[in-house]
């Protein structure tokens, strides 16, 4: 398995989450805010996928990856809660 590609994907989805959250805070409409938070939610779910893939490919890394997955799950909950409150 090419771990460099997976790491690149984790970096992309993680930085996209941050960039879109920053953009969401700067939007002028509720619709734009909701759209950007939706992207954050999708990217956080994608990030979880890549982290889980690393664990599946190399179970010896689970203890090192699990704190990242835990934090990522918290972000998923936060973004999902924000979206639910906007409806």
Q: What proportion strand?
A: under 5%
Q: Rg to the nearest angstrom?
A: 14 Å
Count of helical regions: 3
- The average pLDDT score comes to 94
Amount of helix: over 70%
Order of helices and strands: HHH
Stretches where pLDDT is under 50 for at least 5 consecutive residues are none
Which secondary-structure class do the elements indicate?
mainly alpha
Query: What's the overall geometry?
Result: elongated
The biggest beta sheet reads:
none
N→C terminal distance: 41 Å
The total strand number stands at 0
Description:
The chain is 89% helix and 0% strand. It is mainly α.
Q: Helix and strand layout, with pairings?
A:
Blueprint: H1 3-26, H2 30-57, H3 62-86
Helix pairs in contact: 1-2, 2-3
Short description:
This protein has 87 residues and is mostly helical. It has helices at residues 3-26, 30-57, 62-86. The protein is elongated.
List the keywords:
mainly alpha
